[in-house]
Amino acid sequence: MIEYSSQPHYLVAVDCIVFGFDGEHLKILLVKRGLEPEINKWSLMGGFVGAEESPDDAANRVLKKMTGLEGVYLEQMQVYGEPKRDPIERTLSVGYFALIDIHKYEEQLSDDYEAEWFLINDRPKLIFDHNQMVADARKKLRYKAALHPILFEMLPKKFTIPQLHILFEEVNDTKIDTRNFSRKITSTKLLIKLDEKDKLGSKKGAFYYKLDKKEYKANAQAFLNLIPNIKTQG
Amino acid sequence: MIEYSSQPHYLVAVDCIVFGFDGEHLKILLVKRGLEPEINKWSLMGGFVGAEESPDDAANRVLKKMTGLEGVYLEQMQVYGEPKRDPIERTLSVGYFALIDIHKYEEQLSDDYEAEWFLINDRPKLIFDHNQMVADARKKLRYKAALHPILFEMLPKKFTIPQLHILFEEVNDTKIDTRNFSRKITSTKLLIKLDEKDKLGSKKGAFYYKLDKKEYKANAQAFLNLIPNIKTQG
DNA sequence: TTATTAAATGTCTATTTGACAATTAATAAT
DNA sequence: ATTATTAATTGTCAAATAGACATTTAATAA
């Protein structure tokens, strides 16, 4: 039997930065840590990678366990592996960022884990290097959202342009002209206008839209710039 | 003493996809694997993450050991963690892609490791999931290079526009109009024209350029699109 | 009927893009 | 010395896009 001799072995965990949008502000979902050290402190939702699963599997499992949700948008971010990042024992953590529809979560509400939404700009201090993870995830979200139509993942199936607009402003922490935004977003052909209106936000009401799934899948890699025609590439 | 009870522990490795450019084609640097299993098969250069180092440290160490080069452009790509990806023992690997000036490497040439450059499109089959890693790295390189001025890392300090042009074409596997390319690349203000000419490629010779380090650092995050003024953001 | 509020839409200019061809600077050949 | 050759460099134009800016519209409330 071949062996890799005496190389050191480490724990491997996943941590999920879960983003949501309440219609006004960008939020993240935090939990009270359930084990020592730092028990009962706020942290990202995470867990160890089991023997029979990949890190991706583990992240999905953790997310399912703590939010009750399946099939959410989940993307590997990066590995955090400083030797001393966990004071107890060397643990590498694979960071994932997830985008979920905050209302779906509220329906499921598997509240065994004391999960709670926090405003991204007004969140408690987190354990270990989780603060850094959140900062990195936010940056990555912004970057990615500038090029790919992923923010829809945080909205209900039916949504309005004004909702989308606010979400874009939140994520990018900037004001965007409504007229130009509207023009751009509709020019992507990703949206299908519905007959129905959302009357909650105003007297006039705003038309609902839904994603054109077909176009969405075809253009999930869209919106590039420097290289001609790269828009049609991978 | 607190412990994380009986969670499983794994080996953690790094693997580096090293890209280079010989003036005509994109290449990757491969080595003959030095340990069982699959000894003497071609593979990416990699190694285990030691007890006192981060994955980033490990990747730099491996790169130094096998190429003699320090301070090269190195970026974490993603984690490969399928339970069965290594047949001997569960090993997670953090993939890195590196961009190096192929000529610098040839100077150093620590040839103890039977490293060899291969055309990206004409490379041997690699061990384990290394083929997938190369495919992923290539995609990521293309993606990143469309938005960030990183390809300079594969050229000498002094380079010409035609060299840069060929490199962009290679990486993107497409033809780019010389006039439009020239216009775009110079409009970035990242290049400083030198008095000297490279006379090797033609009778007329092509002017050398160098990077404007200051602009480069300031604009390393540049070239975005959907969000207005995001060009000046992070 | 009018006031109010937010949604939806329109216009103009400047810039950028993409398609396309002519000129220039050097060396090699006659 | 003149001409041929080769690749580098530069230029033009029309179409598309971006960014700045204001008005109209559809509903409810007064």
Automatic annotation (TrEMBL), chains A, B:
SUPFAM superfamilies: Nudix, Winged helix' DNA-binding domain. Residues 9-148 form the Nudix hydrolase domain. InterPro entries: NUDIX_hydrolase-like_dom_sf, NUDIX_hydrolase_dom, WH-like_DNA-bd_sf, WH_DNA-bd_sf, WHD_NrtR. Pfam families: NUDIX, WHD_NrtR. Gene3D superfamilies: Nucleoside Triphosphate Pyrophosphohydrolase, Winged helix-like DNA-binding domain superfamily/Winged helix DNA-binding domain. This is ADP-ribose pyrophosphatase YjhB, NUDIX family. It comes from Pedobacter rhizosphaerae.
